Amino acid sequence: MKTRLLSLMMAALLLCTVCLPALAEVSMKIDETVTYQTIESFGTSGAWWSQYAGLWDSKYQNTMKTNRQRIATLLFDPVYGIGLTNYRYNLGAGSADSGNGSYWDPNRRAQSFETAPGVYDWTKDEGAQWFLQEAVRLGVTEVVLFCNSPLERLTKNGWAHLTPGTTSNIDPENYDEWAVYCCDVAEHFVEMGIPVKFISPINEPQWEWTDGQEGCHYAPSEITGVYLAFLEELESRPALVAAGVELSGPESGEWGGQTPEYVNAILGNDVLRQHFTAIDCHSYWTNTQTKISFSNYMKVLYPDVKLRMSEWCEMVNGNDFGMDSALVLAKCVQEDLTILNVVSWCTWVGVAPGNYHDGLMYASESGDGSVSIVPVKRLWAYGNYTRFVRPGFVRVDVSGGNALRPVAFKGENGGKEQLVIVLINDSYANQVAALEGDFSGYTNMQIHETSNARDLARTYNGEVKTEFSVPMQSVVTIVLSK
């Protein structure tokens, strides 16, 4: 009986061994002498969550931190979180003050700081302002003030979204006053020590925005006048000029479609062309070939203009806590970095209530005042880039290794010269990465893994090795230090 039992156990063990995914070797060559774009930031926006989450000042699970501090730490702390350095602050149009318009979620409304034209209450938007200041305290160096809609009082219908059947919602004679408001807010924040780097007055101008959230449609021919009005006002403000504040746009929702028309409306104008050093767009609804086409368009017509990807999430309903949506996010980052050569990349929202593949964490408040905060794998997979590829890092060439979607950077972090390589294994088989290149001078190697089993965990710390395993369904970051 014992002999038979032993035989069965050995057979089962052999069967399991046969079923294990085989280790495949993927070779890639790193060439630090061939360089591409310099990274400026990775970030997220505070739209639709910071205004209420910023008021969660009760203790997080009996710790010394509050719930809002827990969220801020996960997003912005470079040691205990993912170290984001860009924060997009939603400069609201006032729909939360007036109650006007049609919104299926009250949290999609936003306050403005105005109490009357030119009169401001800087205590408004308290929760969102708390997150803005905490993000800066934790290391954010690039703040973008972005508008979904002009101020309600300046719109044609008095709402912060369009009436069905209409087109744009602001008359050109109101552009100047809108620019004054936004620059007043920017000056106030700069005086507070907030590192405002961009004002972005237009968001996804190609869509209709007839309900649901603040928004405004513009034809390509209309946005030129908006940006000219903002540029004139911006350049009349010595404090903003001294702070290096720029305009960003056109914040098109995709890289295809009408986007070249919107881009040309800015860069085809001689005055605006002198100001805009970069173009910001979003990566929604865009496949690989469309990104290649847009990149080629820019290389031919505007080769010296940088690209920034300022908003993206996976447009899928339902909750996902695991690696499926995390891998989709990681692949979008890798594509935008390597095809579009973007210098900045931002997710749409840092926090979400759930039931969508958007937030880097799900968070909600129950009726008794208790708060649930659940970081999801998207947070940690994004952190495989953001915690290690710091502002000032330069992308370097990687040839081969396409199965692992490699992207590599070099730069200085914490006083150390580093080479950072991010790999994505979206297959259901473990693989072996084989690195080629000149790694002389590097004395330490760390590997950090996000997978079903790990959340940006360090799995190796030791001497440099050129072959190592990349687990199935994972995002892995290799950091070589001198």
SSE diagram, text form:
Elements (H helix, E strand, L loop, with lengths): L1 H18 L4 E15 L2 E5 L4 H4 L13 H10 L9 E5 L4 H4 L15 E3 L2 E2 L5 H13 L3 E5 L28 H18 L3 E5 L19 H16 L2 H5 L3 E2 L2 E3 L6 H9 L2 H6 L2 E5 L5 H14 L4 E6 L11 H16 L5 E6 L1 E2 L8 E5 L5 E5 L1 H10 L7 E7 L6 E7 L2 E10 L5 E6 L7 E7 L6 E6 L4 E4 L3 E8 L1
Parallel strand pairs: 1-19, 2-3, 2-12, 3-6, 6-7, 7-8, 9-10, 10-11, 11-12, 13-14
Antiparallel strand pairs: 1-16, 4-5, 14-15, 16-17, 17-18, 18-23, 19-22, 20-21, 20-23
Key attributes of the depicted protein:
single chain; 482 residues; alpha/beta; Immunoglobulin-like; TIM Barrel; 9-stranded mixed sheet; 9-stranded parallel sheet; 13 helices; 30% helix; disordered N terminus
Mind explaining what this structure looks like?
The protein has 482 residues and is of the alpha/beta class. The protein folds into two domains: 22-35 and 397-481, Golgi alpha-mannosidase II (Immunoglobulin-like); 41-388, Glycosidases (TIM Barrel, Alpha-Beta Barrel). It is built from 13 helices and 23 strands. It has a nine-stranded mixed β-sheet. A nine-stranded parallel β-sheet has the order 8-7-6-3-2-12-11-10-9, covered by helices on one side. It has a three-stranded mixed β-sheet with strand order 13-14-15. Helix 11 (288-301) links the parallel strand 10 and strand 11 (306-311). The longest helix has 18 residues, at 2-19. It is globular, with a radius of gyration of 24 Å. The chain starts with a helix and ends with a strand.
